[in-house]
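Reader question, answered in our methods column.
A reader sent in the components of a multi-part assembly and asked whether the whole thing could be modeled at once rather than chain by chain. We filled in our standard form and ran it. Here is what they sent:
COMPLEX SIZE: two components
ENTRIES:
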Amino acid sequence: MLQLIRGFKDILPGEVELWQHIENQARALFHDFGYREIRVPLLEKTELFARGIGEDTDIVEKEMYTFADRKGEMITLRPEATASIVRAYIQHRFHAVDPVQKFFTIGPMFRRERPQKGRYRQFYQINAEALGIAEPMIDVQLIHLLVRLLQRLKVADATPHINSLGCPVCRPAFREALLAFIAERRDALCADCQRRSTRNPMRVLDCKVPGCREAMADAPAIIDHLCPACAVHFAMVREKLERLGITYHLDKRLVRGLDYYTRTTFEIHTAALGAQSAVAGGGRYDGLIELLGGPPTPGVGFAVGFDRLAEIVALQQNDFSRPPRLFIAALGPAAQTVAFEWQMALAEAGLHVEMDYAGHSLKAQMKRADRLGAALVLIVGDNEMKTGEAMLRDMATREQTPVALDRLVETLRQRLANL
RNA sequence: GUGGAUGUAGCUCAGCUGGCAGAGCACCGGGUUGUGGCCCCGGUUGUCGUGGGUUCAAGUCCCAUCAUCCACCCCA
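And here is the structure of the entire assembly that came back:
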């Protein structure tokens, strides 16, 4: 049997409704906050991600779907959306018209990781990006947006964890302090951290190995080494969060896996999915636009893990089925012929109507109507064709009333409106 | 990339020291010649993940491989 590719999955009818529900909530929220949808390609030149995300990151080093196309150009299935959105911002010269742009996008991303719960090779993200705004207000707006979205989706425990990663001004000094600290207790760290300590020392801070946690307990924190500008920025983010009544955890060990992040950084975790606990994350990336060839422009954004979010939402709310309003049980070829035409006419009038196409017994058709969850069943056979009145059965009350066939649409609309 | 567990009907799973491939649910039909849910009766559904090996005989034992799940790792 031909099967789908490892780490990929089908989203089947029944589950799709849940995805649509989440999308609808996100779109409505983004619309109200002035975020406009942007759709960028799934394929980009490899260079965009190599430069944007960082050559040394795990994503670029070993997780991207990168290949040569037929002319030998190196292209990559996008592992995230921010780099593409920033590329579009620069390419279409948004900064020249109005540097302030707020975008959102929803779509698939690709990373070749080992599949696991809530982790697929084609996975979906909801992204929001605010470009051209340096003020801490917009950091807070994005965190607020994230919290509101999760509230609307009835996700409990959606408390954001926040931190500041500083900027190119304050990070070197912190890096020195951290390296010095790590050097003193290198032997106590796990093998991974010993390797990390030279390449990406910030990662040692959020290692989960108990020995490392212990050794790093008193490690210097980034927020104690912020330059005055970053310190003020972060203080304002915290103050505004508090004024909005958004509870948050200050997590001095929170770091990011992508090189472009600066200043405010945030994540939302949940216990619902085991180890794949991060359901959303984001932060400020003030250097990225310039790095990708645009003018110096601040930026901040987040990504929500759609697959993970859908699994969490499904835990409390998983029935999004939309049963037909009416089932037409037709008996005999003559009735079936008119039923077929009614179904189309009623659909045209905005009513979801189902019928049986195979000419099963009335009993079988009633069973099917029940299983589909139809509120009403219209029973039409030779008798009804002669008298011009069909029987309309209310499945909940079992009451049956005659309905004139020539006034069918109006009667049904009335009856269904009252349900 | 590393470690562990699991693959048998559409779904959930049973199948002992190797001996005729099963149950429940679902689906189809009947009990009721034109009336659903509950009940009763009957029926359909299989590359036992795949490929090799051992054996008179393999769902069962061995090897390989693929996939899924869990954890590490990484991240959303």
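What stands out: The mean pLDDT of chain A is 90. The first strand of chain A starts at residue 36 and ends at 37.
Send us your own complexes using the same form.
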